[in-house]
From TrEMBL:
Enzyme class: hydrolase
NCBIfam families xrefs: Xnuc_lig_assoc
InterPro entries found in the cross-reference section: MBL, RibonucZ/Hydroxyglut_hydro, Xnuc_lig_assoc
UniProt protein name: Ligase-associated DNA damage response exonuclease
Source species of the chain: Chryseolinea soli
Enzyme Commission code(s) on record: 3.1.-.-
Molecular functions per Gene Ontology: exonuclease activity; ligase activity; RNA endonuclease activity
Keywords assigned: Exonuclease, Hydrolase, Ligase, Nuclease
Length: 344
């Protein structure tokens, strides 16, 4: 019996009879973070970090069937020891460490190594077997330092103001939007947000995070209310009638996929900012090395290619099929919205 197994319902620990980020309803689920491909509806019991709990509770409308633990706190379930360690992906996100009879496995969930100024910084965890994502597991993905990206965002915002345009920046509602808020130059002007983003941001504020003031965009507002503003919206708003009230505007998208030629044009954006909450190629390799793991399982992303690369470098690596989506989900969501707009 392995410490963890890959089943049709999700990653399973048979000794403890619990699942990690399962995609089918189960009795007990240990959840790495609140994104919808990891925290799903329908489980009987949930366990996550204290920092991730308010968001998961809100998104899944949970009441008393969720429990939480501090980072690093040890939990024993049927003789198996579990603990959650910072994944640096979004605030509260964790890697899950599982230890049984001295054998240690770590499930990374989604992660990044570059500190975003908001999430608890990624912590390497020594293990025998490491389950890693590979969303951006190709050498072409090499992120710029975050400060450089935000210099670009600030320049674009100023330029939009000079041209009499509203700067509209699309970024995922949970994690990416708050990272933008935290790092953009808030002295440049008003920051206005889509309702979906305001809700998540307020949950973070209630948890004690300091973020610049935001104004929620409401239907009654007129074009003059948006003069000189930066408007942050989820990717699903791209191509929707909601955007029209900002005209004339400049549309920016913040995503790891903006590094790919063609992606930006396909989405009709004026500017693409390469900003990802996932590890780039170098970070994936570094993370795998730092675990010291001999056995590596590669989940969502360029899993086949990345697993082969690791194998060629002396590791026992293989691809595993999961239903996690990385940043693919936000791309798919935005593309679907765009297609709908084109049909209309
Ligand atoms: Zn995620
Ligand atoms: Zn994911």
């Amino acid at each position: 019996m392995n410490v963890l197994e890959f089943t049709a319902k999700g990653i399973y620990c048979p000794a403890a009879d619990v699942y990690l980020d399962p995609w089918q309803p189960v009795k007990k689920a240990l959840i790495t973070h609140g994104h919808s491909d990891h925290a799903r509806w329908g489980h009987e019991q949930y366990l996550c970090t204290i920092a991730a709990e308010p968001i998961i509770k809100h998104r899944l409308q949970l009441t008393d069937n969720i429990q939480s633990v501090a980072f690093g706190e040890k939990v024993m379930i049927n003789g198996v020891q579990f603990s959650f360690h910072p994944a640096g992906h979004i605030p509260g996100s964790a890697q899950i460490r599982v230890e049984l009879n001295g054998e240690v496995w770590v499930f990374s969930g989604d992660y990044k190594l570059q500190h975003d100024g908001l999430s608890e910084p990624f912590e390497p965890v020594k293990c025998h077997a490491f389950i890693t994502e590979s969303t951006f597991g190709l050498p072409v993905y090499a992120w710029q330092p975050q400060a450089d990206v935000f210099d670009d965002v600030n320049r674009w915002w100023r330029k939009s103001q000079e041209e009499g345009k509203v700067a509209v920046l699309a970024g995922y509602a949970l994690g990416k939007s708050q990272r933008i808020l935290k790092n953009v130059d808030a002295t440049l002007g008003k920051i206005m947000v889509h309702g979906a983003i305001e809700t998540v941001t307020n949950i973070f504020r209630e948890q004690g995070m300091t973020l610049p003031p935001t104004v929620r965009v409401v239907p009654e507002m007129k074009r003059a209310d948006f003069e000189g503003a930066l408007v942050i919206c989820p990717p699903s708003a791209i191509g929707s009638p909601w955007l029209r009230k900002f005209e004339p505007f400049s549309l920016g998208i913040a995503s790891g996929w903006m590094g790919l030629r063609g992606t930006r044009r396909r989405r009709g954006a004026d500017r693409g900012f390469v900003l990802s909450d996932h590890a780039d190629w170098r970070e994936l390799n570094l993370a795998v090395r730092e675990t010291g793991a001999e056995k590596v399982f590669v989940t969502h992303g360029y899993s086949e290619i990345f697993a082969r690369w690791l194998t060629e470098h002396g590791l026992d690596a293989r691809e595993v099929k999961t239903q996690y989506e990385g940043e693919l989900s936000e791309m798919a969501e935005a593309t679907a919205a765009e297609d709908k707009a084109l049909e209309a």
